[in-house]
Design goal:
single chain, 672 residues, mainly alpha, 2 domains, two-stranded antiparallel sheet, 4 strands, globular
Length: 672
C-alpha cells in the first residue's frame, strides 16, 4: 500500500487519541496516557515511511480535495515538511512517554494527555498543510491548545495569568498573519486569477499556486504580505518584541514546556517563514527584517538568561535566543538563497533534541527536589547521575562545543549537534553574508549570543549539580520511564548533527528549485549566489583561522567563565549578582519589559486613551444621539398634541379638506 493513501492518519490518529482519552481516560491506567503514545508512535512510523518514499523517488506527496470556491483542503509532504514531521512525532512521542512517570500523581492526567494529543495533532496539521488558509486554521488550534496547557494548573492564579498572557500576546501576531492572508488572497484574485487558463479548478491559496505566480504580485504588495506573515511568526516563535509570553509559559507542567519550547509551538513561526520562503526571497527587504529581528532576539534573550534563578526560565530565555538564531539564518537567504532554509531547519531539529532533553532534565530535577530555584539546589550529581550526565551532554550541545578544522580531515564536522548547526549559521550564513555585503552586524549578533549562551547554560549546570547542597532536601533519581527518555535525547543531542549534516542539507535544500529561487531573487532586485553551497564552502575555506575559531572560542570561553564563577567561586557571585549592581538590576527586571508593556503601554496609555475616548463617545456621541432622538419624539408629540383639540367640527373640517385635496390631485392627474 502506497504511503500516499495513509498520510492523513498522521494528524488523524492524535485527534482520535484526544477523543478517546478525554472520554475514557479516567477509567484507564495512567489516565489513558498510553492511547496518545500509541497514536503518535504510529504517526511517527508513517512519517518515516513518507520520508523514505520521498528520499527514494524525489517526488513530494500531495493529496488535495476541493473545499469550496477557490479553496481546498490538502496535504503536502516535501523534504521540508518530511523532516519536520519526523521531528515533531518523535520528540512528542518521547515527551509523552516521559510524562507517564512525571504526571503519575496528578489527578488531572486524562485531561493532560487529551490536551497534549490535540496539541500534537494541531502542530502536525500546521506541518502537513498544502495551503496557507489551512495552515492558519491549524496554527490557531496550536494557540488554543497552548493556552489550555500553559494554564493546565488553572487554579494557580499565576498559571491562569500565564495562559491568558500567552493567548493574548500570540493573538497580536495571529491578527497580522491573518491580515497577510487576506491581502494575499485579494492579490491572487486580482493579479493571478485572470492569467490562469484551463478548465481545472485552481486553488488560489495553495502553496504551489502561490509560488508559481509570485512574479504576478506587485513587489510592494509582496513585501507587505511577507512582513505580515513574519509578524505572525514573531508572535508564535517568541521574537522581540512579542517574546514576553514565553518565559511565563513555564507555569505549566515541565513536559508542556518541553513540548512547547522544543518540538512544537515555538518552531511553528520558523516553519512558516521556511514554508513561504519563495515569497520572502522575492521580497529581500522582508528578509533583512527577519535577519535583524532574529539576530537581535538571539542576543537580547541570552542576556536575560544570565540572571534567572528559576531553572525553567533560564531554558525559556535560551529557547527565545535559539529561535532568534533560526530566524537569523533564514534572513541570510538574501545572499545565500534557499541554503538558508537548510541551515535554519537543521538547527531547529538539533534544538528540538537538546532543548527537549534540557527541559526534561529540569523536570527530573524538580520532580526530585521539589523546587525550581537554582539557589536551593547544588550537589545533585551524587544523587542523580543519569540526569546530571544527560543534562551535561545537552548543555554541551546548547553551548555549541566542538572541534573546528577537523572536518577537513575526517570529511564531516566533529562536535555536538548544537555545535554543528550553530557553527553553520555563524560561519556558513552570517560570515558569508558579511563577506559579500560588508555588513558584520548579524555575525556579531551570532558570536556574542554564543558566548552568553555558554555562560548561562553552564551557570545552570554548575549551580544545580556541583558544589554542596544548599538546602536540606532528599533528591533521588527519577524512574526509568523518565531517565530512559533523557538518555535517548542526550545521544541525539551529541551525535545527530555529526552524522546527518551533509545529507540533511542536501535533502532539505531540494525542497525548492534553485533556478526558480534565483529567478525570484532577481525579480526582487537582489540577486543571490549562483551556486550557494559551493560558494559558501569556498568562502569559509579561505576565511581567516580566527574567524573559524570564534564560535568555538565563544562556547569554550563561556564554559570556562561559568566554571570560574559558579564552580570554583574565584569570583564572588554575591558581588556581581545583587540589585545594587545596575546592570544586574536591569537584567533581573528583564529590561523593565513588564513595566513598559503592561503598566505603561497597556494600563496607562491604552486603557487611559480608551477611558478618555469612551468618556467622549459615551457622553457626546451615544448620549447625544439618544437625547436627540428623544427630543425629536417629544417635540413631535407636542406638535401633534396641539392638533388633537377634541372638537368634532375641527376633525370634520380636516376630513373634508383632505378628501377635497385628494380629488383635486386625481383630477390634475387625469388632465396631464
Amino acid at each position: 500500500m502506497a504511503v500516499d493513501n495513509i498520510v492523513y492518519l498522521i494528524p488523524a490518529l492524535p485527534v482520535l487519541a484526544f477523543v478517546l482519552t478525554l472520554a475514557f481516560g479516567k477509567k484507564l491506567p495512567s489516565g489513558g496516557g498510553y492511547i496518545p503514545i500509541l497514536a503518535i508512535a504510529i504517526s511517527c512510523i508513517i512519517s518515516v515511511l513518507a520520508f523514505l518514499q520521498i528520499n527514494e523517488t524525489g517526488v513530494p506527496i500531495e493529496v488535495s480535495a476541493h473545499w469550496f470556491s477557490v479553496l481546498n483542503v490538502g496535504i503536502l509532504i516535501d523534504p521540508l515538511a518530511s523532516v519536520m514531521l519526523m521531528m515533531v512525532t518523535f520528540v512528542s512521542l518521547l515527551i509523552h512517554i516521559y510524562a507517564i512517570g512525571y504526571m503519575a500523581h496528578d489527578p488531572a492526567k486524562p485531561r493532560y494527555f487529551a490536551e497534549t494529543a490535540l496539541f500534537t495533532a494541531a502542530m502536525l496539521g500546521v506541518v502537513l498543510s498544502d495551503n496557507i488558509l489551512q495552515f492558519f486554521i491549524a496554527w490557531e488550534l496550536v494557540g488554543l491548545c497552548s493556552y489550555l496547557l500553559i494554564g493546565f494548573w488553572f487554579r494557580k492564579p499565576s498559571a491562569a495569568a500565564a495562559g491568558k498572557k500567552a493567548f493574548l500576546t500570540t493573538r497580536v501576531g495571529d491578527v497580522l498573519f491573518l491580515a497577510g492572508i487576506v491581502i494575499l488572497f485579494f492579490n491572487m484574485r486580482e493579479h493571478v486569477l485572470p492569467h490562469i487558463t484551463g478548465h481545472e479548478t485552481v486553488y488560489l491559496l495553495q502553496f504551489s499556486t502561490i509560488f508559481e505566480n509570485i512574479h504576478l504580485i506587485p513587489s510592494g504588495q509582496l513585501t507587505i504580505i511577507t512582513l505580515l506573515f513574519f509578524g505572525g511568526a514573531v508572535g508564535k516563535s517568541g521574537q522581540f518584541p512579542l517574546h514576553v509570553w514565553l518565559p511565563d509559559a513555564m507555569e505549566g507542567p515541565t513536559t508542556v514546556s518541553a513540548l512547547i519550547h522544543a518540538a512544537t509551538m515555538v518552531t511553528a513561526g520558523v516553519y512558516l517563514v521556511a514554508r513561504t520562503f519563495p515569497m520572502f526571497i522575492a521580497a529581500p527587504d522582508s528578509l533583512m527584517v527577519v535577519a535583524y529581528v532574529g539576530g537581535f532576539t538571539a542576543l537580547f534573550a541570552s542576556t536575560m538568561g544570565l540572571v534567572m534563578n528559576d531553572i525553567k526560565r533560564v531554558l525559556a530565555f535560551s529557547t527565545i535566543s535559539q529561535l532568534g538564531y533560526m530566524m537569523l539564518a533564514l534572513g541570510m537567504g538574501s545572499v545565500i538563497g534557499a541554503a538558508a532554509v537548510g541551515f535554519a531547519m537543521f538547527h531547529l531539529i538539533n534544538h528540538a533534541f537538546f532543548k527537549a532533553c534540557l527541559f526534561l532534565c529540569a523536570g527530573s530535577v524538580i520532580h526530585s527536589t521539589g523546587t525550581n530555584d537554582l539557589r536551593e539546589m547544588g550537589g545533585l550529581m551524587s544523587k542523580m547521575k543519569v540526569t546530571g550526565i544527560t543534562m551535561l551532554f545537552a548543555s554541551l550541545a546548547l553551548a555549541g562545543i566542538g572541534i573546528p578544522f577537523i572536518n577537513k580531515i575526517v570529511g564531516f564536522p566533529v562536535g555536538t549537534s548544537g555545535f554543528v548547526s550553530k557553527d553553520a549559521i555563524i560561519l556558513d550564513a552570517t560570515y558569508v553574508f558579511a563577506h559579500m555585503t560588508h555588513d558584520w552586524i548579524p555575525f556579531a549578533f551570532g558570536i556574542l549570543a554564543a558566548l552568553l549562551t555558554a555562560i548561562y547554560t553552564f551557570r545552570l549546570w554548575f549551580m544545580a549539580f556541583t558544589g554542596k547542597p544548599r538546602q536540606e532536601r532528599h533528591p533521588h533519581e527519577s524512574p526509568a520511564t523518565m531517565t530512559g527518555v533523557l538518555s535517548i535525547l542526550a545521544i541525539f543531542a551529541l551525535v545527530f548533527g555529526m552524522l546527518t549534516f551533509v545529507p540533511f542539507l542536501d535533502f532539505v535544500n531540494s525542497t525548492y528549485d534553485p533556478e526558480k529561487i534565483n529567478h525570484l531573487a532577481e525579480l526582487g532586485g537582489n540577486p543571490i549566489l549562483e551556486d550557494p553551497m559551493h560558494e559558501i564552502h569556498h568562502t569559509v575555506d579561505h576565511a581567516s583561522p580566527i574567524i573559524i575559531l570564534l564560535p568555538v572560542i565563544a562556547g569554550v570561553g563561556g564554559l570556562l567563565l561559568a566554571w570560574v564563577i559558579y564552580n570554583r567561586r574565584w569570583i564572588s557571585v554575591a558581588s556581581i549578582g545583587n540589585m545594587r549592581n545596575p546592570l544586574f538590576a536591569i537584567l533581573a527586571k528583564r529590561y523593565y519589559q513588564h513595566e513598559i508593556f503592561i503598566e505603561l503601554i497597556s494600563l496607562k496609555f491604552t486603557y487611559g486613551v480608551l477611558a478618555l475616548t469612551s468618556e467622549f463617545s459615551d457622553r457626546k456621541i451615544v448620549d447625544g444621539i439618544i437625547d436627540g432622538i428623544s427630543s425629536f419624539i417629544i417635540g413631535g408629540a407636542e406638535v401633534l398634541k396641539k392638533i388633537q383639540t377634541g372638537v368634532v367640527q375641527n376633525y370634520a373640517t380636516a376630513t373634508v379638506l383632505g378628501v377635497g385635496l385628494i380629488a383635486l390631485i386625481l383630477s390634475f392627474r387625469e388632465v396631464f
